[in-house]
Protein backbone atom coordinates (compact mmCIF):
# COMPACT_ATOMS: atom_id res chain seq x y z
CA UNK A 1 0.00 0.00 0.00
CA UNK A 2 2.88 2.35 0.78
CA UNK A 3 4.33 1.77 -2.68
CA UNK A 4 0.98 2.48 -4.36
CA UNK A 5 0.56 5.68 -2.39
CA UNK A 6 4.01 6.85 -3.43
CA UNK A 7 3.23 6.22 -7.11
CA UNK A 8 0.02 8.24 -6.86
CA UNK A 9 1.90 11.14 -5.33
CA UNK A 10 4.30 11.21 -8.31
CA UNK A 11 1.60 11.15 -10.98
CA UNK A 12 1.18 14.93 -10.93
CA UNK A 13 4.83 15.38 -11.94
CA UNK A 14 4.34 13.93 -15.45
CA UNK A 15 1.90 16.53 -16.83
CA UNK A 16 3.99 19.31 -15.33
CA UNK A 17 7.12 18.05 -17.09
CA UNK A 18 5.20 17.71 -20.35
CA UNK A 19 3.96 21.28 -20.02
CA UNK A 20 7.52 22.55 -19.43
CA UNK A 21 8.78 20.77 -22.58
CA UNK A 22 5.96 22.24 -24.68
CA UNK A 23 6.56 25.75 -23.38
CA UNK A 24 10.31 25.44 -24.09
CA UNK A 25 9.69 24.34 -27.67
CA UNK A 26 7.23 27.16 -28.30
CA UNK A 27 9.06 30.02 -26.63
CA UNK A 28 12.75 29.05 -26.91
CA UNK A 29 14.94 31.94 -28.15
CA UNK A 30 15.91 31.95 -31.81
CA UNK A 31 19.45 30.77 -32.46
CA UNK A 32 21.74 33.66 -33.30
CA UNK A 33 23.47 33.56 -36.68
CA UNK A 34 26.01 36.26 -35.87
CA UNK A 35 29.44 35.99 -34.33
CA UNK A 36 30.72 38.78 -32.07
CA UNK A 37 32.42 40.21 -35.19
CA UNK A 38 29.20 40.25 -37.17
CA UNK A 39 29.87 37.17 -39.30
CA UNK A 40 27.91 33.99 -39.86
CA UNK A 41 27.93 31.13 -37.36
CA UNK A 42 28.09 28.66 -40.26
CA UNK A 43 31.15 26.52 -39.70
CA UNK A 44 34.04 26.69 -42.15
CA UNK A 45 35.30 23.27 -43.22
CA UNK A 46 37.74 24.25 -45.97
CA UNK A 47 39.56 27.42 -47.04
CA UNK A 48 40.38 27.52 -50.77
CA UNK A 49 43.45 29.57 -51.67
CA UNK A 50 44.87 30.28 -55.13
CA UNK A 51 48.51 31.03 -55.98
CA UNK A 52 50.18 31.71 -59.35
CA UNK A 53 52.68 28.93 -59.98
CA UNK A 54 55.95 30.44 -61.24
CA UNK A 55 58.36 27.73 -60.14
CA UNK A 56 60.90 26.32 -62.57
CA UNK A 57 60.78 22.78 -61.19
CA UNK A 58 58.20 20.04 -60.81
CA UNK A 59 56.87 21.30 -57.47
CA UNK A 60 54.48 24.27 -57.32
CA UNK A 61 56.01 27.52 -56.13
CA UNK A 62 54.94 31.12 -55.64
CA UNK A 63 58.50 32.41 -56.04
CA UNK A 64 57.90 34.81 -53.11
CA UNK A 65 59.68 34.23 -49.74
CA UNK A 66 56.78 35.31 -47.51
CA UNK A 67 54.28 33.08 -49.27
CA UNK A 68 56.69 30.19 -49.76
CA UNK A 69 57.36 30.17 -46.01
CA UNK A 70 53.63 29.89 -45.30
CA UNK A 71 53.12 27.10 -47.83
CA UNK A 72 56.21 24.97 -47.21
CA UNK A 73 56.00 25.13 -43.42
CA UNK A 74 52.22 24.61 -43.39
CA UNK A 75 51.63 27.69 -41.25
CA UNK A 76 47.96 27.95 -42.21
CA UNK A 77 47.42 24.23 -41.72
CA UNK A 78 48.85 24.51 -38.20
CA UNK A 79 46.77 27.62 -37.45
CA UNK A 80 43.49 25.89 -38.30
CA UNK A 81 44.32 22.31 -37.35
CA UNK A 82 42.56 22.49 -33.98
CA UNK A 83 39.41 23.70 -35.73
CA UNK A 84 39.52 20.80 -38.23
CA UNK A 85 39.56 23.30 -41.09
CA UNK A 86 41.30 22.09 -44.23
CA UNK A 87 43.55 24.38 -46.26
CA UNK A 88 43.16 23.71 -49.98
CA UNK A 89 46.04 25.21 -51.98
CA UNK A 90 45.48 25.58 -55.72
CA UNK A 91 48.51 26.56 -57.81
CA UNK A 92 47.69 27.93 -61.26
CA UNK A 93 50.18 27.83 -64.12
CA UNK A 94 47.81 30.18 -65.90
CA UNK A 95 48.32 32.78 -63.14
CA UNK A 96 45.90 35.75 -63.04
CA UNK A 97 43.55 34.81 -65.91
CA UNK A 98 43.04 31.26 -64.63
CA UNK A 99 42.62 32.42 -61.03
CA UNK A 100 40.02 35.01 -62.04
CA UNK A 101 38.06 32.36 -63.88
CA UNK A 102 38.03 30.24 -60.72
CA UNK A 103 36.93 33.25 -58.66
CA UNK A 104 34.09 33.94 -61.08
CA UNK A 105 32.98 30.32 -60.72
CA UNK A 106 33.06 30.67 -56.90
CA UNK A 107 35.74 27.99 -56.58
CA UNK A 108 38.04 30.11 -54.38
CA UNK A 109 37.89 32.09 -51.16
CA UNK A 110 41.28 33.85 -51.32
CA UNK A 111 43.96 34.48 -53.94
CA UNK A 112 47.53 35.73 -53.85
CA UNK A 113 47.78 37.88 -56.97
CA UNK A 114 49.93 40.38 -58.80
CA UNK A 115 48.42 43.78 -59.42
CA UNK A 116 47.11 43.29 -62.97
CA UNK A 117 45.38 39.98 -62.26
CA UNK A 118 43.65 41.49 -59.24
CA UNK A 119 42.74 44.65 -61.17
CA UNK A 120 41.26 42.81 -64.15
CA UNK A 121 39.20 40.61 -61.85
CA UNK A 122 37.84 43.58 -59.93
CA UNK A 123 37.10 45.54 -63.11
CA UNK A 124 35.14 42.56 -64.41
CA UNK A 125 32.86 42.48 -61.41
CA UNK A 126 34.56 39.95 -59.12
CA UNK A 127 33.70 41.15 -55.62
CA UNK A 128 37.06 40.99 -53.85
CA UNK A 129 38.87 43.10 -51.27
CA UNK A 130 42.59 43.78 -50.91
CA UNK A 131 43.65 42.48 -47.50
CA UNK A 132 47.45 42.55 -47.27
CA UNK A 133 50.53 42.95 -49.55
CA UNK A 134 53.16 40.21 -49.47
CA UNK A 135 55.77 41.83 -51.71
CA UNK A 136 55.95 45.26 -53.28
CA UNK A 137 58.06 46.88 -56.00
CA UNK A 138 59.04 43.51 -57.47
CA UNK A 139 61.49 43.91 -60.34
CA UNK A 140 61.38 42.63 -63.91
CA UNK A 141 64.05 42.35 -66.60
CA UNK A 142 64.39 42.75 -70.37
CA UNK A 143 66.50 40.01 -71.93
CA UNK A 144 67.53 39.82 -75.61
CA UNK A 145 69.16 37.24 -77.84
CA UNK A 146 72.94 37.33 -77.58
CA UNK A 147 74.93 38.38 -80.61
CA UNK A 148 72.12 40.37 -82.23
CA UNK A 149 73.49 43.77 -81.28
CA UNK A 150 70.41 44.79 -79.25
CA UNK A 151 71.53 47.38 -76.71
CA UNK A 152 68.42 49.44 -75.93
CA UNK A 153 64.65 49.17 -75.99
CA UNK A 154 64.62 51.30 -79.16
CA UNK A 155 66.62 48.58 -80.95
CA UNK A 156 63.71 46.19 -80.44
CA UNK A 157 61.06 48.21 -82.28
CA UNK A 158 59.20 45.86 -84.62
CA UNK A 159 60.82 42.81 -83.00
CA UNK A 160 59.21 39.85 -81.23
CA UNK A 161 59.06 40.33 -77.46
CA UNK A 162 57.68 37.66 -75.17
CA UNK A 163 55.36 38.99 -72.44
CA UNK A 164 53.06 37.00 -70.15
CA UNK A 165 49.83 38.82 -70.96
CA UNK A 166 47.00 39.14 -68.49
CA UNK A 167 49.46 39.06 -65.59
CA UNK A 168 51.45 41.59 -63.59
CA UNK A 169 54.30 41.11 -66.08
CA UNK A 170 52.24 42.71 -68.84
CA UNK A 171 51.41 45.71 -66.69
CA UNK A 172 55.03 46.26 -65.66
CA UNK A 173 56.09 45.92 -69.32
CA UNK A 174 53.51 48.50 -70.40
CA UNK A 175 54.71 50.90 -67.75
CA UNK A 176 58.32 50.34 -68.73
CA UNK A 177 57.83 51.03 -72.43
CA UNK A 178 55.54 54.00 -71.67
CA UNK A 179 58.38 55.40 -69.56
CA UNK A 180 60.40 55.33 -72.81
CA UNK A 181 57.53 56.93 -74.80
CA UNK A 182 56.68 53.67 -76.57
CA UNK A 183 53.65 51.37 -76.61
CA UNK A 184 52.86 47.73 -77.40
CA UNK A 185 52.13 48.78 -80.99
CA UNK A 186 55.85 49.46 -81.44
CA UNK A 187 56.65 45.76 -80.94
CA UNK A 188 55.42 42.33 -81.94
CA UNK A 189 54.29 41.15 -78.52
CA UNK A 190 54.02 37.37 -78.13
CA UNK A 191 51.99 35.98 -75.21
CA UNK A 192 54.21 33.48 -73.36
CA UNK A 193 54.33 32.32 -69.76
CA UNK A 194 57.70 32.36 -68.02
CA UNK A 195 58.74 28.80 -68.89
CA UNK A 196 57.67 29.13 -72.52
CA UNK A 197 59.44 32.49 -72.78
CA UNK A 198 62.69 31.08 -71.46
CA UNK A 199 62.48 28.21 -73.94
CA UNK A 200 61.62 30.53 -76.84
CA UNK A 201 64.58 32.77 -76.05
CA UNK A 202 66.97 29.85 -75.68
CA UNK A 203 65.88 28.46 -79.06
CA UNK A 204 65.89 31.94 -80.67
CA UNK A 205 62.20 31.92 -81.55
CA UNK A 206 61.75 35.43 -80.15
CA UNK A 207 64.08 38.41 -80.05
CA UNK A 208 63.50 39.44 -76.44
CA UNK A 209 61.51 38.69 -73.33
CA UNK A 210 60.23 40.64 -70.34
CA UNK A 211 60.06 38.66 -67.14
CA UNK A 212 61.55 37.69 -63.82
CA UNK A 213 64.73 36.11 -62.48
CA UNK A 214 64.54 33.22 -64.93
CA UNK A 215 65.85 35.60 -67.59
CA UNK A 216 68.82 36.52 -65.44
CA UNK A 217 69.48 32.80 -64.98
CA UNK A 218 69.60 32.41 -68.77
CA UNK A 219 72.10 35.27 -68.91
CA UNK A 220 74.33 33.43 -66.42
CA UNK A 221 74.32 30.50 -68.85
CA UNK A 222 75.33 32.78 -71.73
CA UNK A 223 72.07 32.29 -73.60
CA UNK A 224 70.75 35.88 -73.43
CA UNK A 225 71.81 39.39 -72.48
CA UNK A 226 69.82 41.37 -69.92
CA UNK A 227 69.95 44.95 -71.21
CA UNK A 228 67.38 46.75 -69.04
CA UNK A 229 64.81 46.37 -66.30
CA UNK A 230 62.34 48.06 -64.01
CA UNK A 231 65.15 49.43 -61.82
CA UNK A 232 66.03 51.79 -64.68
CA UNK A 233 62.96 53.95 -63.99
CA UNK A 234 64.26 54.86 -60.54
CA UNK A 235 60.65 54.81 -59.28
CA UNK A 236 57.89 52.29 -58.58
CA UNK A 237 56.99 52.43 -62.28
CA UNK A 238 57.32 49.04 -64.00
CA UNK A 239 57.55 47.24 -60.66
CA UNK A 240 55.02 44.64 -59.55
CA UNK A 241 52.74 45.01 -56.55
CA UNK A 242 50.99 42.05 -54.97
CA UNK A 243 47.96 41.50 -52.78
CA UNK A 244 46.15 38.81 -50.91
CA UNK A 245 42.56 39.34 -52.01
CA UNK A 246 39.54 37.70 -50.44
CA UNK A 247 36.00 37.35 -51.67
CA UNK A 248 33.65 39.77 -49.93
CA UNK A 249 31.19 36.96 -49.20
CA UNK A 250 33.78 34.94 -47.25
CA UNK A 251 35.17 38.00 -45.44
CA UNK A 252 31.71 39.14 -44.34
CA UNK A 253 30.63 35.68 -43.22
CA UNK A 254 33.89 34.71 -41.52
CA UNK A 255 35.79 37.77 -40.28
CA UNK A 256 37.50 35.77 -37.50
CA UNK A 257 38.89 33.27 -39.99
CA UNK A 258 39.97 36.10 -42.29
CA UNK A 259 41.79 37.78 -39.41
CA UNK A 260 43.72 34.60 -38.63
CA UNK A 261 44.75 34.24 -42.28
CA UNK A 262 46.02 37.84 -42.39
CA UNK A 263 47.82 37.31 -39.07
CA UNK A 264 49.59 34.31 -40.56
CA UNK A 265 50.82 36.47 -43.46
CA UNK A 266 52.00 39.08 -40.96
CA UNK A 267 53.92 36.46 -38.96
CA UNK A 268 55.60 35.18 -42.12
CA UNK A 269 56.51 38.70 -43.26
CA UNK A 270 58.01 39.36 -39.83
CA UNK A 271 60.06 36.15 -39.94
CA UNK A 272 61.36 36.78 -43.47
CA UNK A 273 62.29 40.38 -42.62
CA UNK A 274 64.59 39.43 -39.73
CA UNK A 275 68.27 39.50 -40.84
CA UNK A 276 69.04 36.18 -39.16
CA UNK A 277 66.35 34.49 -41.30
CA UNK A 278 67.22 35.94 -44.72
CA UNK A 279 69.37 33.02 -45.79
CA UNK A 280 66.89 30.38 -44.62
CA UNK A 281 64.01 32.19 -46.34
CA UNK A 282 65.86 32.31 -49.65
CA UNK A 283 67.17 28.77 -49.42
CA UNK A 284 63.79 27.14 -48.80
CA UNK A 285 62.35 29.10 -51.72
CA UNK A 286 65.12 28.34 -54.20
CA UNK A 287 65.19 24.66 -53.24
CA UNK A 288 61.47 24.40 -53.95
CA UNK A 289 61.19 26.72 -56.95
CA UNK A 290 64.48 25.52 -58.49
CA UNK A 291 65.78 29.07 -58.81
CA UNK A 292 69.58 29.51 -58.64
CA UNK A 293 70.34 30.35 -55.01
CA UNK A 294 73.22 32.75 -55.75
CA UNK A 295 71.11 34.56 -58.30
CA UNK A 296 68.24 35.11 -55.89
CA UNK A 297 70.63 36.37 -53.22
CA UNK A 298 72.16 38.77 -55.73
CA UNK A 299 68.75 40.11 -56.75
CA UNK A 300 67.99 41.06 -53.15
CA UNK A 301 71.44 42.18 -52.00
CA UNK A 302 70.63 45.91 -52.11
CA UNK A 303 67.03 45.53 -50.97
CA UNK A 304 65.63 46.45 -47.56
CA UNK A 305 63.59 43.39 -46.58
CA UNK A 306 61.47 45.46 -44.20
CA UNK A 307 60.40 47.59 -47.16
CA UNK A 308 59.88 45.10 -49.98
CA UNK A 309 58.10 42.58 -47.75
CA UNK A 310 56.19 45.18 -45.75
CA UNK A 311 52.53 44.19 -45.25
CA UNK A 312 51.47 47.75 -44.47
CA UNK A 313 48.81 49.28 -46.66
CA UNK A 314 50.43 52.72 -46.64
CA UNK A 315 50.43 55.62 -49.10
CA UNK A 316 53.33 54.10 -51.02
CA UNK A 317 51.33 50.94 -51.67
CA UNK A 318 48.07 52.76 -52.39
CA UNK A 319 49.68 55.15 -54.87
CA UNK A 320 51.51 52.31 -56.64
CA UNK A 321 48.22 50.40 -57.00
CA UNK A 322 46.52 53.55 -58.28
CA UNK A 323 49.25 53.89 -60.90
CA UNK A 324 48.70 50.25 -61.87
CA UNK A 325 44.97 50.88 -62.33
CA UNK A 326 45.73 53.99 -64.41
CA UNK A 327 48.21 52.10 -66.60
CA UNK A 328 45.80 49.20 -67.09
CA UNK A 329 43.09 51.56 -68.28
CA UNK A 330 45.45 53.49 -70.58
CA UNK A 331 46.52 50.19 -72.14
CA UNK A 332 42.81 49.30 -72.54
CA UNK A 333 43.22 46.23 -70.36
CA UNK A 334 40.24 47.43 -68.33
CA UNK A 335 37.41 49.75 -69.32
CA UNK A 336 36.49 51.43 -66.07
CA UNK A 337 38.24 53.02 -63.14
CA UNK A 338 38.60 51.30 -59.79
CA UNK A 339 38.42 53.24 -56.53
CA UNK A 340 41.45 51.70 -54.84
CA UNK A 341 40.64 53.14 -51.39
CA UNK A 342 37.18 51.53 -51.54
CA UNK A 343 38.68 48.25 -52.69
CA UNK A 344 41.12 48.03 -49.80
CA UNK A 345 40.02 46.56 -46.46
CA UNK A 346 42.75 47.66 -44.04
CA UNK A 347 41.01 46.53 -40.84
CA UNK A 348 42.67 43.14 -40.68
CA UNK A 349 46.26 44.33 -41.12
CA UNK A 350 45.75 47.03 -38.48
CA UNK A 351 44.13 44.62 -36.03
CA UNK A 352 46.75 41.92 -36.68
CA UNK A 353 49.65 44.27 -36.02
CA UNK A 354 48.09 45.21 -32.68
CA UNK A 355 47.38 41.61 -31.71
CA UNK A 356 50.92 40.47 -32.60
CA UNK A 357 52.72 43.46 -31.11
CA UNK A 358 54.30 44.47 -34.44
CA UNK A 359 53.68 48.22 -34.12
CA UNK A 360 57.40 49.06 -34.43
CA UNK A 361 58.36 46.46 -37.04
CA UNK A 362 57.42 48.28 -40.27
CA UNK A 363 57.30 51.99 -40.99
CA UNK A 364 54.93 53.57 -43.53
CA UNK A 365 56.59 54.40 -46.86
CA UNK A 366 55.86 57.47 -48.94
Structure description:
- By secondary structure, the chain is an alpha/beta fold.
- It folds into two domains: 46-137 and 241-356, D-Maltodextrin-Binding Protein, domain 2, CATH 3.40.190.10; 141-233, D-Maltodextrin-Binding Protein, domain 2 (3-Layer(aba) Sandwich).
- 45% of the residues lie in helices and 14% in strands.
- The chain contains 17 helices and ten strands.
- The protein has helices spanning 2-10, 13-27, 65-72, 75-80, 95-104, 115-123, 168-179, 194-202, 213-220, 248-253, 255-273, 278-289, 293-300, 305-308, 315-330, 340-343, 347-356; strands spanning 46-52, 86-92, 110-114, 128-132, 141-145, 160-163, 188-191, 208-211, 224-229, 242-247.
- It has a five-stranded mixed β-sheet, with helices on both faces. It has a five-stranded mixed β-sheet with strand order 7-6-8-5-9, sandwiched between helices.
- Helix 7 (168-179) links the parallel strand 6 and strand 7 (188-191).
- The protein is globular and about 60 Å long.
- Mean pLDDT is 88; it is low at 1-36.
Amino acid sequence: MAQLSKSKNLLWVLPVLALIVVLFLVFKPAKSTATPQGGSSERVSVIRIAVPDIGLGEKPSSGIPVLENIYLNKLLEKEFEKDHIKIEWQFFKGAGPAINEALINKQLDFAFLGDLGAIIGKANGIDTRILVPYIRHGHSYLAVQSGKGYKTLEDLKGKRIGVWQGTASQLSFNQFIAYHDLSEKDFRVVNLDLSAMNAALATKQIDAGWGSLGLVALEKKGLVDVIAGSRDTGTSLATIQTALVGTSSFIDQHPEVTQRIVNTVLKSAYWVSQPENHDSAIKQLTDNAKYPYDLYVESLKDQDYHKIFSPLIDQDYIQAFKQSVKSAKEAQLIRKDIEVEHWIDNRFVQQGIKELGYQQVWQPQN
